[in-house]
Specification:
globular, alpha/beta, binds magnesium ion, 255 residues, binds adenosine-5'-triphosphate, four-stranded antiparallel beta sheet, six-stranded mixed beta sheet
């Protein structure tokens, strides 16, 4: 039976208790200039989990990912990876630790081919053999990219570009992937495809932190979810519990 969504920060009732989180935010305050956006946000991500962050526009969802990646230094609080603080680490070093980021808006190198885009994703890896092996795996996961490996990215459809952005993030063989709104603005069949691929990544054991407008679909593929509101933790719990929770339904799922 799904437990009820808890109105507290922290890992939530169904989080694995025996293991330590691979990625963790503790009481993070963050601001743009002097405008505070995040107020004591806490979040845990355990290895092998898919976790969603949902919440209204402007809640601070993307800001959480920016803090993890080191684009934005928090005022207070801590981000840890494998138990070690990474709060003040430069972005390139965060990536080297094994955290990959798929930004909002299908950002690909439009004048480069699919293969070149994937190679760019692996720029921090020196070993050519490893890059080739990883590229094979990524192209197996995304057959549509394999068919189009010589195509210039800018000429592909929005959905294909999103597949490429996701594929590129996998090229460092990340331990954790952060995805910001992967389905936003896509035609329905590509929305389906994006969530199908997220499901495949989950089944392959990948650890994912997902920010999504499409809260229902996102929670459906997630082990757990966090609802942010006005930069604060509002609810947390297993995906199924949040989907079933009357308050969450009424406020965030349009139900
Ligand atoms: N670079 C920036 N400079 C100043 N304010 C910003 C900046 N980026 C975001 N904000 C503000 O921070 C708040 C949180 O933004 P954020 O992008 O994290 O929200 P979000 O939950 O991802 O929203 P959305 O669902 O619209 O993507 C918003 O009020 C936004 O206007
Ligand atoms: Mg956002």
């Amino acid at each position: 039976m799904p437990t009820l969504a808890a109105e507290v920060p922290g890992p939530g009732p169904d989080a694995p208790e025996t293991t330590k989180p691979v990625l963790s935010l503790r009481e993070v305050d963050a601001a743009y200039g002097n405008v505070q956006i995040l107020h004591g946000v806490s979040l845990d991500l355990f290895a092998g989990e898919v976790v969603s962050i949902i919440g209204p526009n402007g809640a601070g969802k993307s800001t959480v990912l920016k803090v993890i990646m080191g684009f934005l230094k928090p005022w207070a609080g801590e981000v840890t990876f494998d138990g070690e603080p990474i709060t003040h680490l430069r972005t390139d070093l965060v990536v080297r630790r094994g955290i990959s980021y798929v930004p909002q808006g299908r950002i690909v190198f439009k004048d480069m081919t699919v293969s070149e885009n994937l190679e760019m994703g692996a720029y921090s890896i020196g070993d050519k053999g490893q890059i080739a092996r990883t590229m094979d795996q990524v192209l197996t996961l995304f057959p549509r990219l394999a068919e189009r490996r010589k195509q210039v990215a800018g000429t592909m459809s929005g959905g294909e570009q999103q597949m490429l952005a996701m594929g590129r993030a996998l090229m460092i063989e990340p331990r954790v992937v952060l995805m910001d709104e992967p389905s936003l603005g896509l035609a329905p069949r590509f929305v389906e495809l994006v969530f199908e691929k997220i499901g495949e990544l989950r089944d392959a054991g990948m650890t994912l932190l997902l920010v999504e407008q499409n809260a229902t679909k996102s929670l459906s593929v997630s082990d757990r979810g966090y609802v942010l509101e006005l930069g604060r933790n509002r609810f947390t719990g297993p995906g199924v519990a949040l989907l079933a929770d009357e308050r969450v339904k009424r406020l965030y799922l349009g139900g």
